[in-house]
Design goal:
Layout: E1 2-7, H1 12-24, E2 28-34, E3 45-49, H2 55-62, E4 66-69, H3 75-78, H4 81-100, E5 106-110, H5 122-136, E6 141-145, E7 150-151, H6 159-174, E8 185-186, H7 187-197, E9 204-208, H8 210-217
Parallel strand pairs: 1-2, 1-4, 2-3, 4-5, 5-6, 6-9, 7-8
Amino acid sequence: MKNVVVVGATGLVGSAFVRQALADYPDLNIHAVVRRSTQVQHARYQESVADTESWPQAIIDARPDAIFCALGTTIKDAGSKAAFRAVDFELVAAVGAAARQTKCRHFLSISSGMADASANSFYLQTKGAAEDTLIAQGFNRLDILRPGLLKGDRKQFRLGESLAIAASPLMDRLMLGPMKKFRSIHADTVAKAALNLLSEGDAGAFVHENNAIASLADSG
């Protein structure tokens, strides 16, 4: 059995990851570190409910073989750039640092297409800085997934995202060649790709764009 800690388990991709892991991957034990209970009941599932300041110790106590980090918000939802950075950079970095204090050898993280610490966009700049920090932490294996527009049943309503999803059938057809990596993709597909990556053993840091994520989801 492999023990996998999930942070961001109440979000769109994180909840899909937990659901699929418990349904289709009997060799995985899932330990969610959350601020509020997911109410999931399963023999292979447990959770630590704590404020984010206590998450590093909860991660250390869980003794994970792998960590799946699905943390992510928006500047609008967070309320400010500082609050957004506190989640998408500072908390991601803290989770990574805690993982390095354990025997965890495999870290998987959801990022964003075009993430780049030197980008003009504060959002993409923050995502890129988080990626760079995880790479610098030196995991035996690091998988960074950069999905395009995420589709799925979000608990919170986001007007701009909803409009983009409504237009995605047409826009996806117009995105050809290098632009394919910006196509929409379902959260279930991203979660399945991450689950399939857990069986990969090659060392190194790997970045998976939209097309690769879809292929990974079909590989198992």
